[in-house]
Design a protein that fits this description.
Blueprint (H helix, E strand, L loop, with lengths): L3 E6 L10 H8 L3 E5 H4 L9 E5 L4 H13 L3 E6 L8 H11 L8 E5 L4 H9 E2 L5 E5 L7 H13 L3 E5 L9 H10 L7 E6 L7 E6 L12 E5 L5 E5 L2 E6 L10
Parallel strand pairs: 1-4, 1-5, 2-3, 2-4, 6-13, 7-8
Antiparallel strand pairs: 8-11, 9-10, 9-11, 12-13
Helix pairs in contact: 3-4, 6-7
Bound molecules: S-adenosyl-L-homocysteine.
């Protein structure tokens, strides 16, 4: 079987954050599958077929792409950021596990990309400089009670927390509830970073505190980093603040 499938991370938006490996995987494909706005970001080469689908159709998209690859095509499935972070690589693995046995013999490659939390962290300093975790606030694929338990556990264990999928029209209240939950465990001065559409022309970044963090300033293109009790903000004259988490507990001075 000569077909193959690459799951390709496009990075958060800026073409300079598309790796040469990702670019080569896109160029080698006969067919590109993905959410429409992600496919819009890349140049379709002559002869390439474009299969855009809705963001909520990840399982169906993975199955279509695998079927196409099993017929002998070179298929690329694209994701924003990294394909393994709340994205298509897991959907493809799920489809392979539950699909026809022929799909297990396909040549499958995952091409990593710059995930949103790394891009947002780089904009403000080094908030992920020590132990951290990433959580999706979407309760499409898990109950909200589990999100709350994980928020409590992460905050009480001292992790910096990156929040993906913070809010959407269908989920307007979750982020406010998450901030309330975190305020029970963390000091009001804990730094909070809201990075929106980082790497795109409409990018914006806000550095605030847990006490002042406003869920209304986030949308579905926003990645939020909530510091731990050791995360610090350096105020600089004439320059934006630097937010960082020291590498060792001993480095913390009050
Ligand atoms: N695979 C992607 C994440 C998909 S989940 C990655 O690795 O980045 C979608 C969420 O990612 C969004 O709701 C938002 O929280 C975050 N996100 C994606 N692109 C972003 C960007 N350019 N700026 C800020 N956050 C972004």
């Amino acid at each position: 079987m000569s077909g193959r499938l690459a799951v390709v991370g496009l990075g958060p938006g800026d073409v300079r954050w598309l790796t040469p490996e990702a670019d080569a995987a896109l160029a080698a494909a006969d067919a590109l599958y993905g959410y429409g706005p992600y496919l819009d970001r890349i140049a379709i080469r002559p002869g390439q077929a474009r299969h855009a689908s809705d963001n909520r159709e990840e399982s169906a998209r993975a199955a279509s792409a695998l079927r196409h690859a099993a017929e002998g095509a070179k298929v690329a499935v694209v994701s924003g950021g990294d394909p393994g972070v709340f994205a298509m690589a897991a959907a493809v693995c799920e489809a392979i596990e539950s699909g026809p046995s022929a799909w297990r013999t396909l040549d499958v490659t995952i091409v990593p990309g710059v995930t949103a939390m790394l891009a947002v962290a780089a904009r403000v300093g080094a908030p992920l400089g020590h132990d951290f975790c990433a959580l999706s606030l979407s309760d499409n694929l898990k109950p909200w009670e589990l999100v709350e338990r994980r928020l409590d556990a992460a905050a009480s264990a001292g992790f910096v927390i990156a929040l993906y999928n913070p809010i959407s029209r269908a989920r307007p209240w979750q982020l406010g509830t998450a901030f309330e939950r975190l305020r029970r465990q963390l000091p009001p001065t804990t730094p909070v970073v809201l990075g929106r559409a980082v790497g795109r022309t409409d990018e914006s970044t806000v550095v605030t505190t847990l006490a002042d963090a406003n869920p209304d300033s986030a949308d579905m293109a926003t990645l939020i980093i909530v510091g731990s009790a050791t995360t610090r903000t350096i105020v600089r004259p004439g320059r934006p603040p630097l937010v960082y988490t020291p590498r060792a507990m001993e480095a913390v001075r009050s």
